[in-house]
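Following up on my earlier message about flavin-adenine dinucleotide. Here are the inputs again, as you asked, copied directly from the submission form:
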Amino acid sequence: MMEKSITRLPQTDRAPIRVSFEFFPPKSQEMEQSLWHAVERLAPLSPSFVSVTYGAGGSTRERTHATVARIVKETSLKPAAHLTCVAASRDEVDDVVRTYRQAGVNHIVALRGDPPAGIGTRYEPHPQGYATSTDLIKGIRRLGDFEISVSAYPEKHPESASFDADIDVLKAKIDAGATRAITQFFFDNQVYLRFLERVRAKGINIPIVPGIVPVQNFRQTASFAQKTGASVPQWLAERFEGLEDDIDTRRLVAAAVAAEQVLDLTERGVRDFHFYTMNKADLVFAICHLLGLRAKIEKKAA
Ligand code: FAD
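Thanks, got it. Here's what our run produced:
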């Protein structure tokens, strides 16, 4: 459970809450509609940026580019395009970066990516590709003045030998030019707060924005968490126990759990939140409402 005893961060109660939303590129017409419904519903909350994830295959990548392009064209939102080193040469990755630049995209979430053969297998870089996320950041920096966000792992990356090694990698990414880290999701706030203390003790001062995942479906989330090395506390499993076939109650419980998590973090001075939306708006909208955000209706100038 979330204890209340850990060191509190300096209170910055009057600083505004800032949120960002992560979407994934849709695979079908139906998913496209649900994505755009979510974008339209969440846009009036004036997020700092909205990010679009990047996949391994060529067609997935095209969908990322198309989604980012549509956000630029049809909304006033600031897009952040995720980009990985996986299965592409440096030239190919550089071309993607240049294309984003030309399209007016100035923010990239730079990642190594998962092993092409699947999570849990050994990562083999493309022979002509960027070998690590740090190399990718250096490459992006050479191509222009981008805002670069990176990942951070409060429970360490599953491939890392130790927490210290993982934090050294984070430091290298910052030294290469990253200005914000977004965390892997977590459910126990102690995990994030302890990580923050460790990171700050190593002299890392950039924002480490907590990644929040509202639990749309407990089984799926738990299975994904296992692959990514995020722990699922027993108390969380108990909250969703017996609700497998009760979608309505599950949604109410999910909203309550996520609200409890973010409100606890605000009490500890956290002001920035990144939501893994899963392309669904309702839960995230409700949680943002509880955080005090209110919709502003704004139309993009013609
Ligand atoms: P990195 O920080 O690059 O670390 C990966 C591993 O390599 C770690 O074990 C690290 O210690 C090690 N390492 C890194 N550099 C070195 C070095 N120089 N020497 C030795 N070891 C090193 N995946 C996608 O495919 N598409 C996405 O859009 C996507 N978005 C994500 C967004 C966020 C916020 C997060 C947290 C993850 C995202 N992922 C995405 C998942 C991510 O690609 C995987 O977790 C991947 O396995 C690691 O990539 P990374 O850049 O996060 O990790």
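One observation from looking it over: The chain has a mean pLDDT of 93. Hope that helps, and feel free to reply on this thread.
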